[in-house]
Amino acid sequence: MDIFVIGATGFVGGAAARHLAARGHSVSGLARSDAAARALSEQGIVAVRGDLEEGRAAVVASVADAVIVAAQLDPTVEQVLVDELLDALAGTGRTLLLTSGTGAFLQRTGGAWSEDVYAEDDPFEVEPLARQRFAVEQAVRRAGRHPRPRRSGTQPEPVRGEPRLG
């Protein structure tokens, strides 16, 4: 399978890219610098030199079997990127995986414990800080209900560790 990873030089995206490459998948990753491109190449990952603002991600993603977005982006950049990816993958049957965190379900509790638990379809009052992220996640979820790309999302527990390429 050909997999394109946006965020392949980061902690979560890098771990995913290395894992997939080690299992025989053809993995490419976006690299914003020559140093990042070299580091990806040394790990058996095809470096795609560019930046998200250049619009190349959607072009490269349109030929991949699956696209993973594991970069921590400015919310506005993320919104534009995900919209471009959904359009590029529309009707292809290819997979879009958006990694996320639990921050979209942020609650202001003043440090107090909350036993509240929310599932994807539960009504929820989104905090202003998380509105753009929540909107992006909802766009990806809606994409799976239409003849657009297959989609998936994940909200892992907080990930800790030393970044490899940061």
From TrEMBL:
Region of interest: Disordered: 138-166
GO cellular component entries: cytoplasm
A GO term for molecular function: aldehyde dehydrogenase (NAD+) activity
Domain NAD(P)-binding per the UniProt entry, residue ranges: 7-115
Biased composition (Basic residues): 142-151
Protein name as annotated: Nucleoside-diphosphate-sugar epimerase
